Amino acid sequence: MKAIHFAVPTLVMAACASQPVDSSIPATLVPADGKVVERIAARGVQIYECKANATGGQGWAFVAPEAELFDAQGRTVGKHYAGPHWEAPDGSKIVGTVKSRSDAPDASAIPWLLLDAKSVGSDGRFSKVTSVQRINTVGGLAPATQPCDAKSLGAKSRVSYTADYVLLSKGTAAY
Question: Which PANTHER family match (predicted)?
Fold first, then answer.
């Protein structure tokens, strides 16, 4: 019976060490060698500006995100802003470059993304992150009902959104 008592905690620890791939995430958004460092939620806005486009008309152009980041307990763990950057209060900061995108399951939401990430701040919470997934998006698309015409060039619109960001690292997760 003692063997079972030791085996159960070992199995539980092993299950926690390697999280299964979420089958709802498209394969194109899963980095080959990424291990989950942390899952954080974002609540904020996507900022758009009414601009002239290449065809001589006008349209809403994405400018930047502006969001607060929260851990699983609902505590603020940072901010997300133009770049795109994710920054923690400890000074650790990453900047992302879109590697792949996929339409969100909800057509009224911004796309899901996989971004390559590079540390551009001090050591800390986000410094070991090498990839970021943006998933479970709600809202955030360019305004559909607010006009963007010659009279409104330069106007900005702030559209509410939420998303989950999965922070990943190559090799062993540090956080």
Answer: CONSERVED FUNGAL PROTEIN (AFU_ORTHOLOGUE AFUA_1G14230), MALATE DEHYDROGENASE (AFU_ORTHOLOGUE AFUA_2G13800)
